[in-house]
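Weekly structure sync, notes
Attendees: PL, DS, HV (note-taker this week)

Item 1: ABC transporter ATP-binding protein
DS walked through the input record. Source organism listed as Candidatus Borkfalkia ceftriaxoniphila. Sequence as pasted into the shared doc:
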Amino acid sequence: MENNIEIRKLAKRYKDFALKNVSFDIPKGAVVGFIGENGAGKSTTVNCILGSANPDGGSIRIFGKDASRLTAAERSEIGVVLGEECLPKNLNLKQIGNIMRNLFANWQESAYEKYLKDFSLPLDKKYKDLSKGMKQKAAVAAALSHDARVLVLDEATVGLDPVARNEILDILYEFMQNEEHSILISSHIVSDLEKICDYICFIHHGEVVFFEEKDALREKFGVLKCGVSDFSNLDKGAVVGYTRSEYGVWALVYRDKIPAGYLVERAEIEDIMLYFIRGERP
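Item 1 (cont.): predicted structure, written out as tokens:
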């Protein structure tokens, strides 16, 4: 499988935080969900990909080239939505489109206006006067309107109600109909990632815990609910993490290591992340 982005042993050091040997791929035709708690290293990794932070080690290849050697035209093939206000606040959406036309040689005015119409966003309203959710929609519209091959979305659905989030997810599905396209998306709304992602990359304390196909994770892990005595009889190598209460034990386990007779439920992505981060170790 070909990749649009390849990250190998990426390192970045700050005074109180460090990325350590982060490696994963963003394949063509795939959506990669990037998960982890606040401060885990997601934004630092994204900043290194986008060139707004300089790595201290490792490599990033985009479209088969070292990221530092991309031309302006190649960089314009990366659409970006950050979880912050990232468009000129004193301009209306029509004026923002005019600026984008000057920034991107492949700017598609008709596509931009179509997305604004689909999102019910007014061309004559200043960006600063939009609601938080409308600002996110406008940023997504801009990111999709310069013929991008890769989208990098950091909390792109933050502040949106469920209907608006589904509108954005539908547009991302449409974007992914082209098998040359890829998406890297981070979100604290894990249910959105469950819907759209092919792969999950989980980062914790600056290190990648796993990078796996979403469906393979569901086959690999399960949530076990049992009494304390039953739990004590388990092979502890079958347990990733657990929580204990007066009612018994809940644990994230490797499904194939649990004997018959135990109740093992399906593990959602959020369960997997929480037990890796907060669960006690056997």
